[in-house]
Design brief:
The protein is of the alpha+beta class and about 650 residues long. The protein has 3 domains: about 160 residues, no CATH class; about 190 residues, Immunoglobulins (Immunoglobulin-like, Sandwich); about 240 residues, no CATH class. It has 16 helices and 30 strands. The strands form 8 sheets. A 6-stranded mixed sheet has the order 1-23-24-22-21-20, sandwiched between helices. A hairpin with a 4-residue loop joins strand 9 and strand 10. Helix 10 crosses helix 14 and helix 10 runs antiparallel to helix 15. The longest helix is centred in the middle third of the chain and has 22 residues. It starts with 14 loop residues before the first helix and ends in a 10-residue tail after the last strand.
């Protein structure tokens, strides 16, 4: 399950059957041995300029000594002798040039200053018998180009992973960059990439401000900037909590939702010891069979409001056929939090958990997402093949990659390919376990109880697919245990060459290597690829390649590959069955029959060259096609390997 290592409870039957993390692990440690990130101690700064303090009624505002145009900045609020736990913060801008606020619900208001001038903000703090308000003003000066820029100031629960991002500028490099602690407890920091320091928020007894300063010498001048991380105390993790490492603070996207009071406790809490009853948090479709986006948004739990805003906009503007709205009938909640990585579905809560990397539209929104990667061992190191994949349309990448160093802005149309494929996949898991056809018969008291009953009778959609149309390659199934479950490769498996894998895979009826990891993933992959092809004419490439020392689009040489494998006749019955069970409004057989026939990639070309695969330059017999000039192809946005399943490689 990725970040949390293990959601552990003795009641679990087969973890792979109830946790679909799509790249993460389960309670059999299936995502590998966790290894400690490289860290080093950070020295104390030699001098510190204190923050300015302004008391407005019961609220204390801490402001920076200076605010400068273009800088990532912060205002930190607190109540006298009160921690922020169990309090709700709501910031608004009252005056000044318009600022994009992405942390309105945090005690740390983080923002970029667009222009010099006077700014004024209001804050209301409520909860736990508290309701106080106040306003604070700041003055921003013109940029003197004397600072570097560290993003983004924020609040983090003790034990949270924390990442910061230092902006690039001419002359700034790892050799002339250093970090020190200006305020707060000592910490160890991973400075493998000094432009992206990573650390664990320290243990604290009360809300504690941590100030990290970056310094560099350019042209004989020392330039600096500080980042502010408010580390907040939190209740101790319950001994039997499903989530065994600290979670970020989340809140109901819609405070007036009838489920606002139970969302966090039932789906994203370190005190979650038992599954909630379905009368507390039923599936959306159990309340009403009518497709209603407002009912969906009542179930959204976020760490930042922009995540809910963008998800709502996506549902309203990018789901014209209501596929996602219908598939969402089979979940209890949608959790979107800056610390979710990778996305997953979990039957115990009935919720899907979305990595916001697929949702950001502005640089400020992206700044608020935690970049801390999973430090995990790589499986399959002893194998001699790679199976990359990608989505394409008209011989171009369907999605566009944006390096973290670029202050990029995206549109809903640009995030659509990645987010749509993610939702089809994760919601396939939810509809595998609880398709709409069974909603009326669920008796609880929890979804887990209903799942166990359905699992005992082998009545899940994926069970039906596996029973009627089983995968036949024992070799690929065994290799999947090596690549995705961490089994050791035996001598025979180590000796397999790409040509062997091509033979095993191409003659079976899976549409991706990841399908062999479990019958649940097999079913999810079928729905995902079929719907991406049908709704968007976006085709999925899958290939078998060599395994070079350096993995790039140029060094991966294709032994076998196909574009749009889901359109192959031998897969038609499997995909049609899944569609009929999960989206009965569609005719699965007709839908799959309408998909384009798969196109073979040219054997011997590299992965980059095969982007231009078309019926005219490759035949199903795998004959060579003329090599294309490398400068005729677009840049590779990212290299995705089978099993990555929407995990975002660090750019």
């Amino acid at each position: 399950m990725g970040r949390w290592g293990l959601i552990r409870r003795g009641i679990f039957i087969a973890a792979s059957a109830i946790l679909s993390a799509c790249g993460g692990n389960s309670d059999n440690n299936s995502d590998g041995d966790t290894v400690a990130p490289p860290t080093s101690s950070v020295p104390r700064c030699s001098s510190v300029e204190p923050l300015l303090t302004t008391d407005v009624g019961a609220i204390r505002f801490n402001t920076e000594p200076q605010y400068v145009t273009g800088q990532s900045s912060a205002i930190i609020a607190s109540l006298d002798q009160r921690d922020s736990q169990d309090l709700e913060f709501r910031w608004q801008q009252v005056d000044g040039p318009n600022i994009e606020l992405v942390s309105q619900n945090s005690p740390v208001l983080a923002f970029d200053i667009p222009a010099p001038g006077n700014y004024r903000f209001s804050l209301r703090v409520t909860g736990n018998n508290t309701d106080v308000s106040g306003e604070i003003s700041i003055v921003a000066d013109s940029s003197a180009n004397s600072l570097i820029n560290v993003r983004q100031d924020h609040q983090a629960v003790e034990g949270n992973d924390v990442s910061l991002r230092l902006g690039q500028q001419p002359g700034l490099n790892a050799g002339n960059l250093s970090w020190c602690i200006a305020q707060g407890p000592d910490i160890n920091v991973d400075l493998t990439d000094p432009f992206r320091p990573l650390f664990i928020a320290p243990s604290v007894n009360n809300d504690t401000l941590l100030r990290l300063r970056a310094s560099a010498t350019l042209n004989g001048n020392t330039i600096t900037d500080e980042a502010y991380v408010l580390t907040t105390a939190a209740p101790a993790i319950s001994p039997n909590s499903y989530f065994d490492t600290p979670l970020s603070r989340t809140h109901a996207y819609r405070p007036s939702s009838p489920y606002a009071e139970v969302l966090t406790d039932c789906v994203y809490s370190n005190q979650l010891n038992n599954a909630c009853n379905i009368n507390q948090l039923p599936l959306i479709g159990q309340v009403s069979a009518t497709v209603d986006i407002d009912s969906i948004l009542d179930r959204v739990l976020v760490s930042h409001d922009w995540m809910g805003d963008n998800f709502a906009a996506f549902l309203r503007q990018m789901d014209p056929y209501s596929d996602f709205a219908r598939l969402l009938q089979s979940v209890t909640a949608v959790v979107i939090s800056y610390d979710v990585r990778p996305s997953f579905y979990w039957v115990v809560t009935g919720a899907i958990y979305l990595d916001p990397s697929d949702l950001w539209l502005t640089p400020a929104q992206r700044d608020s997402i935690n970049e801390a990667p999973d430090y995990r061992s790589n499986f399959g190191n002893d194998l001699n093949f790679i199976m990359p994949w990608r989505y394409v349309k008209n011989n171009q990448y369907a999605s566009q990659g944006f390096p973290m160093t670029v202050r990029a802005t995206r549109t809903l149309a640009q995030i659509n390919p990645d987010l749509a494929s993610l939702l089809y996949h994760e919601l396939a898991h939810a509809n595998d376990f609880f398709p709409r056809s069974v909603h009326a018969s669920l008796s609880g008291p929890t979804l887990l109880d209903d799942f166990e009953r359905r699992n005992r009778t082998q009545s899940l959609v994926s069970d039906l697919v596996s029973r009627l149309f089983p995968l036949s390659s024992a070799e690929m199934t065994a290799l999947a245990k090596v690549s995705f479950l961490g089994n050791s490769a035996d001598a025979t498996q180590q000796g397999y060459q790409p040509s062997d894998i091509s033979n095993f895979f191409s003659n079976d009826i899976a549409n991706d290597f990841y399908a062999y990891s479990s019958r649940r993933e097999d079913t999810a992959m079928l729905l995902e690829e079929a719907m991406m092809s049908y709704r968007y004419q976006i085709l999925r490439d899958v290939a078998v390649t060599n395994k070079p020392a350096q993995l790039t689009a140029e060094t991966l040489i294709v032994d076998w590959g196909q574009r749009g494998r889901i359109g192959q006749a031998s897969l038609e019955s499997r995909a049609a069955l899944v569609i009929d069970e999960m989206l009965p409004e569609l005719n699965g057989r007709s839908l799959v029959a309408s998909l384009p026939e798969p196109i073979a990639m040219a054997q011997g070309q590299n992965w980059r060259q095969t982007l231009a695969t078309s019926p005219t330059n490759a035949r199903l017999n795998g004959l060579q096609s003329p090599a294309l000039a490398s400068d005729s192809l677009p840049d590779e946005p990212e290299l995705r390997l089978s099993g990555d399943r929407h995990r975002r490689p660090q750019q």
